[in-house]
Amino acid sequence: MRRTHEQDPEPGPDQDTGQGPGSWQPDESPQVSRPLRVAVVGGGPGGLYAAALLKRLDPAREITVWERGAPDNTFGFGVVLSDETLGGIQHADPVVYRALQEEFVRWDDIDIVHRGLTLTSGGHGFAALGRRRLLEILHERCRSLGVGLRVREEAPPAAELSAAYDLVIAADGVHSLTRAAYADVFGPRVTTHRCRYIWLAADFAFDAFRFEIAETEHGVMQLHGYPYAKNASTVIVEMREEVWRAAGLDRCDEAESTERCARIFADALGGRALRGNAVSSGGLPPRPPSSWIAFRTVVNDRWSCGNTVLLGDAAHTAHFSIGSGTKLAVEDALALAACIEEQPDLPAALAAYESERRPVVASTQRAAAASLRWFEELATYLDQPPRQFAFNLLTRSRRVTHDNLRLRDPAFTGAVEEDFGCPSGTPPMFTPFRLRGLTLRNRVVVSPMDMYSAVDGVPGDFHLVHLGARALGGAGLVMTEMVCVSPEGRITPGCAGLYTAEQAAAWRRVTDFVHEQSPGTAVGVQLGHSGRKGSTRLMWDGIDQPLDDGNWPVAAASALPYRAGVNQVPRELDVDGLARVREQFVSAARRAADCGFDLLELHCAHGYLLSGFLSPLTNQRTDGYGGSLAGRLRFPLEVFDAVRGVWPDDRPMTVRISATDWAQGGTTVEDAIEIARAFAARGADAIDVSTGQVVADEAPEYGRSYQTPYADRIRNVLGVPVIAVGAISSWDDVNSLLLAGRADLCALARPHLYDPHWTLHAAAEQGYAGPGARWPLPYRAGSRTPPTGRTDAPKPRLSLG
């Protein structure tokens, strides 16, 4: 009874919210080894399936399901389940599996229609059935097993159920009353998003999963459609809230909305009508029909409270654009039943259930958030070339990537690569990229990484080996760590500098090595000043902790310590101090040019000095260098202009920014776009888009490629080249980001610490041996993966019994 998952279009029941009885604490609940009396609140697929599984595992159990609506009440029309989910169902309950198999319609293609052009990608593999039919199958199975079904009946209050039953399963949807009753224990957080959508149906079957874009006078609208029966399809129409209001749809009832959506997407529908999903409620207070909804993401700190456990949408939601809440709920049911069977008692079972499901759900919610944001910002992608737009849409959640899309549909992916400019047999990451007079042989950047290994700011043998090894490893651009422009601008005593002739000579040794031993690799310098985050210990001795002795004074935009009571209060820079710092940057830039660096990056991120001017959380000045965003930009732009003035015209300059502070009241993505716009207007050749590290109480949303949406947004709003960074861990991620038009270059840090030859190994793993990834002559013999064991053993031919 193992479980996997993804999600396909299906929201949870749209129930009224309300407060249940007062909360109790977990230690007040009965402790049972095997729950024999089970109450299930909510008769959706998750609740019904959990009831059926638990009854099947132990026929002696007394299980009752309460559903306040009629047995065929539902929201949405079709349910899509993956082969992985079906495999779990097959092993757990072959009867349900066979019934589902008889009902499924299957298809492989996705059609993307944009500006009159239909692009088709195949090989995806979908299976769907009607949600009402799914409920019928589960009702039949529950009745056959002896589960008590109490439909059109409100469940008793949560506290009564928990006292009367061994186990209470709260499967009562996104507006769970059970969750509300124990909110102080579950810790729910509900986020409402920026689009409105409506669930509709058409009485014909699309022949593919269809995405269609309508550019109306009011704004962009999109249709998501897929078949769920031989003569029926789910149709979801979605748009930004401001578009919905401008179109007057906020003033339409369901019938009017349905008619207008059918007119807007008449081509997709072949002129046929749409229908809504209004339902009766069996004499109970009516549940809302499938009218316009703003999607809500539900997250809970805990999923169990004593003997009450959350399941499905009550515990978590994930945006319909990546899959089904039904699918998640069914897999929750599988996991819960298995854990109850496997664990010695109920507390252990509920802990194991949450431990198993939480990371899987979190991964799905991250993918769903990426997909949701993509559709919220759909308008920014409309001018992309058609195939790139389609590829971007298909890979929006980061679950579908360049590599697996190439396996599913090599012809489609090959056409996207050709449009991108990939020579035959060349992965996107090994296509060249030009910045001013510098042409990078590939799109891989060794991200700046502080090594804390300099002595008096002088880079030594460690830096030569560290940077030289990564240059030999094939990256198109190797960046230094943040090189400090003054002694007081260092973060730690081990930080490198470029404020003395000795330091410049040491850096020249590095650039000469890279240019002579790894021709075609560019080496860039990142110039910065620590600001209020300076005078601290080496990272491994206590990151951001002040020195035990030998501290130097620090300066910043405002007299605000990085951490009150821990780090020293910085001196607010006056006009003379600003001029002095500006000149320090200029002097360092002159030395960098003389050292032979190919590119210069101005560090305006991560809470260091220039970043401290940009963020409203760290800049509280009342003069012309604070206040509005224009004021906060003033000094960083002055430094940029001064550095650009002495940096050779043919060599590019980039700027690293923190596109969000991950803290309330800090830099927003809209601010980041304006910051990038300002630097680009002054001559920045690319924006290196990082996030955070500005304030100590930040709350980043970590995950794979978690910072790349900010680079994506800046690139596609402004049309400026961007460097994406942030948990990009695989060459497949790099290819996907580039081909989708979300980034121009990809900077990787930890992968290059793990493997200095990461880029060359990526080329070998993709079978590429072209000019974008030349092996150094002394290393060429190692350009193939070495064998790991004998491969010449004779294969068995006969089996003799």
From TrEMBL:
Annotated InterPro entries:
Aldolase_TIM (IPR013785), FAD-bd (IPR002938), FAD/NAD-bd_sf (IPR036188), OxRdtase_FMN_N (IPR001155), YqjM-like (IPR044152)
Q: Which superkingdom?
A: Bacteria
Q: Where is this region: Disordered?
A: 1-32, 778-801
The record places domain NADH:flavin oxidoreductase/NADH oxidase N-terminal at: 429-763
Q: Where is the FAD-binding domain?
A: 159-365
Q: What name appears for this protein in its UniProt entry?
A: Bifunctional salicylyl-CoA 5-hydroxylase/oxidoreductase
Organism of origin is Streptomyces flavidovirens
For this protein's source organism, the top of the classification is: Bacteria, Bacillati, Actinomycetota, Actinomycetes, Kitasatosporales
